[in-house]
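REQUEST ID: PR-0412
SUBMITTED BY: lab tech R.K.
PRIORITY: routine
TASK: structure prediction, single protein chain
INPUT:
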Amino acid sequence: MTKFTLKTYRPSAETEKPHFYILNKGMNSGKPLKQPCPNCFILIAPTEEAKEQLYWLSFGLWRAKSFHYYLKGSVIPFITKNDLKQGILNGFEQANNDIPIFKKSVKALQLLEEQEKVYKLNLKLIDDARRAVFYRYISKKRYS
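STATUS: complete
OUTPUT:
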């Protein structure tokens, strides 16, 4: 089992070890992040390979809404550090039971993430094109 450290993120405490961030408040609690935010934990892994494995495990658990079970709070839901760690350890144990299926699932998640980025870029370009078409219409009316 890969050992990892889970801490509350503080901007003053930076680390050089492989790490990523995990959101801890709101309905997206448990979402892994590349960049820190005010309400997050930092997961520090021993190696870059372990970090990638834990990142995609956390991402899959978050997408499957596995962390919703651990949410507390009535107004702003949040997840505690111990509950998050327990959820990751449970997921890690299940992933280690069938490593080939886990690797196949991670590959599928990565492909879907790339496809989602392409779709978001296309939607942004379509939105820009709409804005340009309408702007052209307005500018003709204004200067006629």
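NOTES: The longest helix spans residues 99-142.
REVIEWED BY: pending
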